[in-house]
Amino acid sequence: MEAPAREPDYEAVVVGAGFGGIGAGVELRRAGIDDFLIVDKNTDVGGTWHVNTYPGVAADTPSIYYSFSYERPRQMSRLFSPGAEVQQYARQVVDRYGLRPHLRLATSVTEARWDDRNSLWHLMFDDGNRVTTRYFISAVGALDIPRLPDIDGLDSYGGKVVHTARWDHDFDYTGKRIAVIGTGSSALQVIPELAEHAERLTVFQRRGIWVLPKRDRPLSPATKRVLELPVLRRMIRTALAGASDLALLGIALYHRRIPRLIDAYRAASERFFRRELTDRPELVERLLPNYSPGCKRSSVSDRYLRAFTRDNVELVTSSITKIVDAGIQTADGTLHPADVVVCATGFRLMEKGCTPSFPVYGRAGENLHEFWDRSGFQAYQGVSIPRFPNMFLITGPYGVAAASLIAMVECTARHAARAIGTARRRGLRTVEVRQRAHDRYLALCRTRAPRTFWLTPHCADSNTYYVNYQGEAAVMRPTTHMSMWWGNKHFPLRDYSFTH
């Protein structure tokens, strides 16, 4: 007689305790599941908001929208929350929804492997332990592995080297000659802060960045009281979601039909550049990008451009050739002295073998990284993949369709919880997206994605993360926010196979 199937240690294990993992935990509890674990390599919750603590770090989405619809931030001092407040909000949700007992922090997953005979997953940890789980939810996020620039001499540089995602708060940056490599989203925030304390700040720019005014401001007590009204909060969130849809659809999908939208974006940004740099007009052309607006995520700041007008700040557009102990050498032969090198160079987003950061093996030992490398990034509704049963992604490929990542987390986490809850109610152990349903969704995305603005010549020099190493625009779902919300909430259950 065949031995009975093994029972798992946990009904579900969520990998990642950022907002993706937190949102998944909330939805599991709402589905009546309390036997689950949330694992994270960091020592606290918050994900990218735990590791990104550089000076000036803040949300670039309004606080009222950068939150779960069911839980308003209690600590909201500004229109755009500082990073510390965003992480405090993560802790708030964890405590409010009873997730603290489910956490296992300072623990890295090194492998996930499907056990077909027992219909469960084996997860290996870096401490040598392993657990089994019926359902495996990957919520590791995309902003997980810092990208360091490939520059000769960086590894042997005798001064201080720090990445913005690994900020050293014990080091005193005051009065130092600081070099910042990169002019992306993190540089946009850290440069104005460093400029106020450095003896000399040298910014090395390979590509400019389009910037619009942020118009950030403190929230008055009266404003905070008004924003506590549920009806008003819903109205504002709906309006912001609509604005996000307009930008996504207007620029990404319908750029040929309404080119004036991009023209208006360009004109508004150029006016802002000229207004901020009135006393240094020669900087305008040097800071303006050589690619079109809309190729990258919109960037907002009230301080970035003005930082370059300071006497102690220098913009360098000549390419870096090498780093020596004395500083940074550029192609024009100049040596730029530096005591500290700050790498504001982002993350390894949707690169080969990076998401998740550990190997995942599905049916017949199928390696997820190899499958994506061979067949392109793909997932039904950004959540499920054939041959990887009982596994769900939080905002996987083609799974993001709005400015607020937390809003997207909420959509995909509910999708996963609905599929898991249905299997449990039916007394079944395995749920797997059907190949036909997956392929139908993938065909929709791959039909629309090549027509997106990011794959036009306008964005050829932008190095946008919307386009991966395979040349596909597989990050964003080429539909509206409303379509994503509806698709994840009301997907046909027949799109999944539920079995013993």
Automatic annotation (TrEMBL):
<protein>
    <submittedName>
        <fullName>Cation diffusion facilitator CzcD-associated flavoprotein CzcO</fullName>
    </submittedName>
</protein>
<dbReference type="InterPro" id="IPR051209">
    <property type="entry name" value="FAD-bind_Monooxygenase_sf"/>
</dbReference>
<dbReference type="InterPro" id="IPR036188">
    <property type="entry name" value="FAD/NAD-bd_sf"/>
</dbReference>
<dbReference type="Pfam" id="PF13738">
    <property type="entry name" value="Pyr_redox_3"/>
</dbReference>
